[in-house]
Structures are given as structure tokens and as C-alpha cells.
Amino acid sequence: MFFTPTEDMEGILMGESVEGEQLYEKISQLRGEIVKLKEERDALIEQARKLRAEKFQKLENLRTLRETIDKIRENMKGKLDELQALKARKDELINDLNEMRQSLKTEDKGKNEGVANLAAIQRRIRELEWQIQTNSLDIDEEKRLVKRIEELRKKENELKKYAKLKEKYKEGKAQLLAKKVELNTLRSKMGQIVGELKEQRELLQKKKAERDALVNQIIELNKKIEEVNVSIDKLKTEADEKRKELGSAVELSRSNRQGRSRQEEQKIIERKKEEVKEKMKRTNRLSFHEFRILYDGAQGTDGE
Q: Looking at per-residue confidence, does 180 or 215 come out higher?
């Protein structure tokens, strides 16, 4: 007669005490708790991964936004520089226009004085000169004619001056008109740039608001990631403690099983000894296996 390992284990389980059952339940509970903690930790690790991916994307968006803001500022600086240059040119044009207007006022007074008489004066000078050259004149008459010619010469020079002044006035008016056209063009261009600057400022404020919102979102993500990491570490610590507790429980269970196995084995040997003694009384015949059980308490493995 012999017992297989399976039969021995069944006998041990059937003979376990309440304390053993509680220990078994504790081991099962600890294993379940460890599995649950691992699942929770895995879920948090996945959550942290997603949060980091979201943070990375927002950091990329933030980098792009900052580049956009820098470009807007650079563009605005260029527009402001252009506006300052146009303003300086406008001030220069206004100054030129004021000077030209003042000059034209002076020129306008004499631009038409006696211009129509220039030809008549020149003709009269020629007549007087011819009269002096061709006629016999007394000294007084000749002096009178020479003096008259000199007067006419002065008048001729004045009229020539007025003629030049008239031409200059025309040129000045043309230049004045050109300056006015340029000034109007400058003012139109400045108005356009001012409008563009207004749009750029509005866009800049919008992008800065988006940037600030992204920064706040990244700060919040960092907090969440830190909280999740703390929770992961906490779960790991808790799981490690549960594993240690499980190891101790398993070791205690193993030790208890080994103690119960020895006790069960001794009970079986004592029972078989009694059976062998009864057989001796009845038959007075024993097998080698029964002989060993009776005299040295050894349990055989090959039964009769």
C-alpha cells in the first residue's frame, strides 16, 4: 500500500486547519491585489505617455507660435521704419512746398509787368540808334537821344528779367504740382501702412494670447504628469510591499505544509504499524515491507 503525491496533497488540504485556510485566502487576496495594482500602474503609465505626447505637441505648437510672433514683430518693425522714412520725406516736402509758395508769391507780382512792351522798346532803341547814326544832330539833341536809349536799355533789361521770371514761375508751378502729387502719394502710402500696422498689432495680440494660453496648458500638463508619476511611484511601492507580504505568506504556507506533511506521515506509519501487528496475530506471516514498517517505521513504496 502506498500514497501518491496527489493523494498526499489532498490529504493535507483536507486536514488543513482554519488558520491554514485563512492563510490561503490571504495569499489569494494578495495576488489579486498585486494584479490590480499592476493594472492600475499600467493604466497610469499609459496615461502619462499620452500626457507627454500631448505636452510634446503643445510644445511644438508653442515653438511655431513664437516664431510667428517674432515674424510679426519683425514685419511691424519694417513697417514702422518705412513709416518713419515716409514721414521724414513728407515733412521735407511740406517745407519745400512752403518755400516754393512763398517764392511764387514774390515772382507772381512781376511776372506780367510790361512783358508785352519788350518788343516795342527794343524797336524804339533801334530807331533812336539809327537816328543818331544817320542824322546830323547838335550836341544837346544827341545827348538827349543817348540818355533816352540808356533809359530804354534799363527798361529792356527789366522786361527781360520779368520774362525770365515768368518762365521760372511756370517751372515753379510745375514743380509745386509735382511736389503736391508726391505728398498726396506719401500720405496715401502712410495711411496704408498705418492700416497694416493696426492689423499686425491685432494679430500680434491674438497670437500672444494663444501663446499665453498654451504656456498655461503646458504648465497644467506638467502638474498632471507629475501627479501621475507620483501615483505610479506610490503604486509601485505599494505593489512591492504586497509582494514582500505575499512572499512571507507563501513561505509561511510552505513551512506549515511541510510541518503538516511530517505529522500526517507519522500518523500513517503508526496506523500501518497497528495493521501489521493485527496481521501477525492472525497469520503470523509478514512481508518484507510490513516487516520494515513494524521494526524501523520505514514507509515502503512498492506495497504487497
A: 215
